[in-house]
Specification:
By secondary structure, this protein is α+β, with helices and mostly antiparallel strands. The chain has 11 helices and 10 strands. The strands form 3 sheets. A 5-stranded mixed beta sheet has the order 4-6-7-9-10. The protein has a 3-stranded antiparallel beta sheet with strand order 1-3-2. It has a two-stranded antiparallel sheet with strand order 5-8.
């Protein structure tokens, strides 16, 4: 880390840390506008004045005539990155509405972190940071000294697993449980499964595991269970089994086929009559081609925008008095506390500040 600047009395002045800007990914023939938008959001989130300018990104990219055949080509590159980034930010703001933790000015050039907290906004910030945890996908945190510690990263992944239950509950308009290991209530696998299905009343969980079943199963790849029970209490309502994937290998994991071929036969003496929807839940943003291709392979893909919008819907539904049982929502308070501390660390040059 660079030496910190000095005041007149010789004491150090905190220099805020800014995300690292990967030149190649933003100035090549196909700029990654989603990455550029993430950079603007991270900058606004970490900035002492809560603001980031798209023009600052362009200045940092150092797009100059020396790199191009003529000045017109350099200006066209700047315009393409500027307009593409602004369009991506405007799209997120419009799609997420109240779940977006930032405000974009009408000209599309200034992004402001709003500070106001909600489930959708908190989950968005958590997802934004998780999207840049590993340097193989994005170097913006690790190259700038903003990477959380290994212990923090483990917590962030667990918190994400708990918080997404709100998004899945909002998606189905019903109840959702955090089933992935470690579970919030510390329950054992079979005990938790019996508790959930005693509530759903469609299908029978085995009293004892089948001979040859795994002896110390944690979650059997299922991280979220959700359902919307019919008003008549009868069989035949939608059930969601979801897998959470917050790492670079998210495309390699899938519940497709596992639910019907392994999960239900292994753990149920009577398979639910209700139909099961398979969901794949990630903190990343995806484009239209990616979601089309991977939905066919992985199941319904809940990416950052869809996930956070639905979490906001769930919170607002509960506020209106909806009878929804959503497990894991107490975690939002822990995430908010960590996010505040993380911002403070960045604003003080990575140094811990006593509260």
């Amino acid at each position: 880390m660079q030496d910190r600047p000095k005041q007149q009395d010789g004491t150090s002045v905190a220099r805020p840390i800014r995300p690292y800007i990967p030149q190649d990914q933003l100035t090549n023939s196909r700029p990654d506008f989603a990455l550029a938008a993430d950079l603007i959001e991270l900058t606004a989130f970490l900035a002492p004045d809560n603001r980031a300018l798209v023009s600052d990104l362009l200045s940092a990219l150092e797009i100059g005539q020396d790199e191009y055949e003529n000045l017109d080509e350099a200006l066209q590159t700047r315009d393409r990155i500027s307009s593409g980034t602004s369009i991506e930010l405007e799209t997120r703001s419009r799609q997420l509405a109240a779940a977006y933790p930032f405000a974009l000015d009408t000209a599309g050039v200034v992004l402001t972190f709003t500070l106001s907290k909600s489930w959708g906004r908190t989950l968005y910030l958590l997802s934004l940071i998780l999207s840049h945890i590993t340097s193989t996908r994005s170097p913006v945190l690790v190259q700038s000294g903003l990477l959380p510690t290994e212990q923090e990263i483990a917590k962030l992944r667990t918190w994400f697993q708990y918080c997404v239950t709100a998004g899945v509950a909002g998606e189905i308009g019903g109840d959702a449980w955090a089933f992935g290991w470690p579970r919030p209530d510390g329950s054992a696998f079979l005990a938790k499964l019996k508790t959930i299905w005693a509530y759903l009343k469609d299908g029978d969980v085995r009293h004892e595991p089948l001979e040859g079943a795994p002896g110390k199963v944690k979650d059997d790849e299922v991280d979220v269970i959700a359902a919307r029970i019919g008003c008549d209490g009868l069989h035949g309502f939608p059930i969601i089994l979801g897998q959470v994937a917050s790492g670079d290998n998210w495309r390699a994991k899938s519940l497709r086929g596992h639910t019907d071929e392994v999960f239900y036969p292994e753990w149920f003496s009577t398979t639910p009559a209700s139909q099961t929807l398979v969901y794949h839940i990630i903190p990343f943003t995806v484009d239209g081609e990616t979601i089309r291709r991977h939905t066919r392979r992985l199941g319904h893909l809940m990416h950052r925008v869809r996930l956070c919008y639905r979490a906001q819907e769930a919170q607002e539904a509960l506020g209106r008095g909806a009878q929804m049982q959503i497990e894991g929502t107490a975690t939002f308070t822990e995430v908010d506390r960590w996010l505040d501390q993380y911002r403070l660390r960045a604003q003080t040059g990575g140094h811990q500040v006593s509260q």
